[in-house]
Amino acid sequence: MILQEALRQADVQKLAAATYEYHRAADSGPTVYDEKRCHGVTKAYSDFIQRLLTLSPKKEDEQCLLPDNDGPFMTAALYLYSDVRAALAQWQLEKCYTKAELQHFSMAELKAIRQTQQQHQPDSYAYTFEPWENMLAVDICWPCDFSEDEKLKFLAAVLYEISFAALPWKSITEPWQKWKTNGKP
Fold it and tell me: What is d(CA 83, CA 124) in angstroms, rounded to the nearest whole number?
């Protein structure tokens, strides 16, 4: 499934609220989040999601978004399929663990599993300034046992990342093109 399909399947209000929570958790500044600000930011994310649903996805590369829980909250990492395939070819699967099984391991066991998994991990790519149409065409690859809450958190991470600059791609590239043509901004 591509990102736009996942966004269409999500409840826009719940996703906007989840994206606001992600935004708030990622904000390390002194911002005060009162009720008015909460409503305003959630509304802005809701409007952003609605805008994304009107765009036409444009596939540029064979890419996928995968969840990454290596931190205080879930993130979404962008990979090229070719890099993922190369990493999988080098990776020796000892066992595939479910989330339920992993909950019973000690911290030392979890660290050993993580270290084994990271040996051939492909490089992920930044996508903050990727054109929105391109990102909407990227494949979403989440585990089949992802809960609805985990899906919302994953999509919230993607939305936060692509909305970070808060500018559509055209408004970023047009001034650059004018500068290249005219030699000045």
Answer: 9
Residues 18 and 57: their CA atoms lie apart, in Å, by 23
Residue with tokens 């809450």: 149
For the chain of 185 residues, list the mean pLDDT of each consecutive stretch of 10.
Answer: 97 96 82 83 93 94 88 88 85 74 88 76 87 95 92 96 69 61 64
- Contact assessment for residue 157 and residue 76, using Cβ atoms and an 8 Å cutoff: yes
| Sign of the dihedral through C-alpha 71, 74, 76, 82 | positive
Q: Please give the model's pTM, rounded to 2 decimal places.
A: 0.76
The residues, any chain, with a CB within 8 Å of residue 131's CB and separated by 6 or more, are 58, 169
- What does the longest C-alpha to C-alpha distance in the chain come to? 63
| DSSP element (H, E) containing 140 | strand 139-140
Distances 127 to 38, 112, 158 between C-alpha atoms, Å: 26, 30, 9
Write down the residue that tokens 């009107």 correspond to.
54
Q: Checking DSSP bridges between strand 63-68 and strand 139-140, what pairing results, if any?
A: parallel
